[in-house]
Amino acid sequence: METPLLDETVEGVVDYNGHPVCRFNSGGWRSASLIIGVEIAERFAFYGASSNLINFLTDQLHQSTAMAAKNVNVWSGTAALLPLLGAFLADCFLGRYRTIIISSALYVLGLGLLTLSAALPSLGISACQQAEKFLPCSPNLVQVILFFFSLYLVAFAKGGHEPCIQAFGADQFDEQHPEERKAKSSFFNWWYLGISLACLSTVNIMSYVQDNLSWSLGFGIPCIAMVFGLAVFLLGTRTYRFSNRKYEENPFVRIGRVFITAIRNWQVNSTEIAHDEETHGLLPHHNSKQLRFLDKASIVPNSSKEESQACSINEVEEAKAILRLVPIWVTCLTYAIVFSQSSTFFIKQGVTLDRSIVVGFEVPAASLQSFISLGVVISLVIYDRVLIPTARKFTGKPSGITMLQRIGFGMLLSIISMVVAALIEGKRLKTAREYGLVDLPKATIPLSIWWLVPQYVLFGVASTFTMVGLQEFFYDQVPSRIRSIGVSLNLSIFGTGSFLSSFLISTIEKLTSGDGKQSWFDNNLNKAHLDYFYWLLVGLSVVGLAAFLCFARTYIYNKGNTT
């Protein structure tokens, strides 16, 4: 076995000062593990602010259950779509390192203002609570404005931080080096494992603090965690590898030019394309046979003499790689709609159930989200240590199964989790009727909250397959210059899914309420029909999975990668 040279440099990357980097003292797991630690701190901060958000809106700001769920979905959707903007700024202007630092500082500011908003005296609520008769409570307007401003500032900061930190972590591995390429594949598993551990601790600790101590403390601790994460990230600066592609053309300009040129050449027929390929001596494997209309961008029409109008074959293939992602992105939206329920209606279900463990202590309903993380942690270990080595023996692939196979299996598990959720909700409603609690929304239904655990655990196992698979897929299948955009495309699935969930809730609420009808999302959950909503999501998910399988079967992996 050859001993690696201590002064072996890594091509295509430099250190913070712009100098060539040595392999043995830069990047790799040395830097990636540090970046995973930073992400754990960021996830602790984010989940600390978001995991119990629906209860803050209903209990502190006195919003209805449906309105609170819609606000959570809209905010979650915004937070998941903003990475598209953050990734664009990072890949085209600021660079990932600077974007992470700026967004982290904004993160701290947003969480600090969120803490201040929770600490403000709610004069309207105090007056309401002191009244002898029940009156509708109105929170302090200043508190509401400051709360939502700081909340969306956190979302804006997350938009810059999330796509860049993951892409920057994966960039610490050299794809041309066999060992580092193998380590990079494991990086995404360990990345999601770290996120899950952060979530596991956060939802248990912070939901208890917020429900039993104070909301200002519940938002203040995540702020401190984010300060710690920023400090750790800065400490690792000297070990990081930075991309050395400063003089490359803007990737958006390059890819956009392919589409524009192809449209301009729309009248070019297939004979001219074939002749151009033959003239340049292109072999069939140099040019994929899908999306052939984009090949028109690579030739100059006979009527034109401007050679600059033609795009290179590599540029055309880059554009094709982006366009091939669209069907996968669209068909995964149903999974994202299902996933958004764990932070809204699942929590409100838990509030109505028996949450007592011992006398005087109740489990915070939001803490059950920790079982998602627990499911991820357990299933990831089994997946990495048992399933993948076994699958390698049958498929011969380094990763055992393809990324799309992994995603599809997770989507199937998410459907099963919604079936379980619908059945448990049906049991909850039946128990409420049997004990005459239908008209008593504040009463505790004599059904243990642990009945909700299976649907949370199934969510976690599904995430191990689909969410981790999507992260690796969208990072790996885009051109290397715009991998922050690839990560943000993955995140945008969940942002769009949250908006679609909010749209579904609004539409169903309008259709099922009024004229004496009982809304599926009635404030009294004992009269509502969340089970109907869950069954609807099962149907949508089945359609989404069927469409996904159709597109996945014809998908051609970029760079010949099927892992």
TrEMBL record:
The chain crosses the membrane at residues 74-94, 101-120, 140-157, 190-209, 215-236, 326-347, 367-386, 407-424, 487-508, 532-552. It comes from the Eukaryota. GO terms for molecular function: dipeptide transmembrane transporter activity; low-affinity nitrate transmembrane transporter activity; tripeptide transmembrane transporter activity. Pfam families: PTR2. It is found in: Membrane. InterPro entries: MFS_trans_sf (IPR036259), NRT1/PTR (IPR044739), POT_fam (IPR000109), PTR2_symporter_CS (IPR018456). Keywords: Membrane, Phosphoprotein, Transmembrane, Transmembrane helix, Transport. PROSITE patterns: PTR2_1 (PS01022). Coiled coil: none annotated. SUPFAM superfamilies: MFS general substrate transporter. Belongs to the major facilitator superfamily. Proton-dependent oligopeptide transporter (POT/PTR) (TC 2.A.17) family. This is Protein NRT1/ PTR FAMILY 5.10-like. It comes from Cucumis melo var. makuwa.
